[in-house]
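Course assignment 3, question 2. Fill in each field.
Student: A.L.
Task: Predict the tertiary structure for the chain below.
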Amino acid sequence: MTEKVSSRSRGRSFVGLRSPVALLLLSVIVVATTVVGCHKAEPNKPDHADAAPNAAAAKQSLDGLKPKLSELNANFSDLRKQVEAIPANFPEFGDVRAKFYSSVEALGAMGAKLNWLSDRLDTAVREGKPDALATVSEDIAHTYEELQQAERTRIELVHALSPFSQQAQAAAAPTFKTVLRSGYVLTATDHHIEQHLLEFLEDPKQKVDKTTWFDFDPPFVAGGGLELDKEAFKAQLENVFQILKAYPEAKLEIGGFTDNSGTAAENKTLSVACAQEVKNKLVGLGVAASRLVASGYGSEHPLCPANDTPECKTKNRRISVRLTAK
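Answer field:
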């Protein structure tokens, strides 16, 4: 009912505009409306004055890409040292190695691309071509996305390289070798979890406490999951099983730890699941479940408190064990 009354009111107003003055005013309103409407109908045709701020913004964006590229090149240079320290014939390393060199090749072309974008931008501004300016601005934005993707790839490579670096270091490191009470000849990397665990068990001065942990080599992969089938980790699990077999009075708490990515609840859930998975592996090898406790600590007790770089976060994602009885 209200809408009908309003509509009739507007109708009476227009019908009532009979005087020449009123008609003149109406004409002015119509012309003004038409001018405004025409201006809005061509938003994609900015005049030369409107192109200036767009050019400045495009140049600022392009200039911002240069330090990002320099930082990426420096970070990939550091990664190269890790890649080249790992034997190319390492099992399963081929795909990671190929991904690294493919990324380096793509990154190497970025310097020339930035120069090309700079030339195109200068030409578009000099010749006053808004369409060309819009196109090069889109290409600059796309190049920014490419650099962002390169950084994501770098982070993935950091995580992927970690277990291979551990294996390479272990292969080059001095070997720890001993005969257990059971007669089993245990061979491991010097100063790793097996040696530390045995030294604690065999030293009567060492008392069980809640702060002495022994770390497995990092079994984590990108995304926070575990990859327990890696040969290095399987070897450590087998050695820990043999130690527990030789020391039947020993009991362990298996602790899962994460970095600070994600919420506290998510990290807690992940760390518990990872610790439980390692417990299940040891039970599967023959350790009584009653001798093992799986606990998750989330992002608590970080080895690298800053938690600010992929390398730092990798250190914090770990599986550790603590003797609860000896």
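Instructor remarks: The chain is about 65% helix and 10% strand. Residues 164 and 317 are 16 Å apart (CA to CA).
Grade: pending
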